[in-house]
Amino acid sequence: MNDNSKALNERPDSPQVMDQIDRIVTLWKRARPDLDFKSTEVIGRLVRMEYFITRRVLLDLARYDLNVGEFDVLAALRRHPPYFQLSPNQLQAMVLISSGALTNRINRLESRGLVTRAQADHDRRGVIVTLTEDGFKVVEEAVRFHLAAEAELAGALSGEEQEQLSALLKKMLLLVEE
Fold first, then answer.
1. What are the E-state strand segments in 20-121?
2. In this predicted model, what pLDDT tens digit does every residue of 87-118 receive, in sequence order?
3. 40 near 25, Cβ under 8 Å?
4. How far apart are CA 96 and CA 173, in angstroms?
5. Residue 119 φ/ψ, nearest 5 degrees
6. What's the CA gap between 139 and 130, in Å, rounded?
7. pTM to 2 decimal places
8. CA dist 105 to 4, 77, 85, 174, Å?
């Protein structure tokens, strides 16, 4: 039995099975045994998972000719019934990007007929971005695939493990979020 087939027969959480982060940390420990790499084991795995998550999400969104940023705008609008509309400032706060980047996303979505821009009723200088019927259909279908992808990726963990990890990640995020 070679090393690869042996690894496949062991549980993924077994200490004998090494992932890419284990290999990197092992090399660092040899090179710098004086340093503590516990944080690298956590952060490295988060970064590596982010890579695989992004790759999967981009694959799913490609069927709608959307990128992650455009999906974020559509999803933010979809979460605001009954009119599915927000001001650019509200959208910017939700998707955490510059106003210029948001304008570019809105322009692309508007050119595809997925959102509209109109003057705000309450403020002649203001603009309201609204999800169109086509935009609603796209985001409704895309969010189903998105949630299925998330469930598949998180499926390596039991429900209790997902809750534990979620709580731990929230604890970390609360320290860095503004």
1. 85-86, 115-119
2. 999 999 998 888 899 999 999 999 999 999 99
3. yes
4. 15
5. -70, 135
6. 13
7. 0.79
8. 44, 13, 15, 28
